[in-house]
Amino acid sequence: MIAVLIGMENAFEILGSYAITFAVIGGFTWRVLRQGRRLADQVDDDQKYWT
Predict the structure, then answer these.
(1) H or E stretch at 38
(2) Can you tell me whether residue 51 is helix, strand or coil?
(3) Angle CA(19)–CA(24)–CA(27) in degrees, nearest 5?
(4) What is the pLDDT of residues 15-33, one digit of tens each?
(5) How is this protein annotated for GO cellular component (predicted)?
(6) What is the pLDDT of residue 5?
(7) 43 three-state secondary structure
(8) Residue 31 pLDDT
(9) In degrees to the nearest 10, what's the CA dihedral of 40, 42, 47, 51?
């Protein structure tokens, strides 16, 4: 019972850390994809070997 109470005392910090981590990873992913699309627009279609 005491272990549950101790865990609940730290729940805000733990869940907050997860939220911040997911937000940062999501923001980084969005930035990388946006930059990749912008750079892909600058390459001629005949040079895009991945298509």
Answers:
(1) helix 11-41
(2) coil
(3) 120
(4) 999 999 999 999 999 999 9
(5) plasma membrane
(6) 64
(7) coil
(8) 98
(9) 30
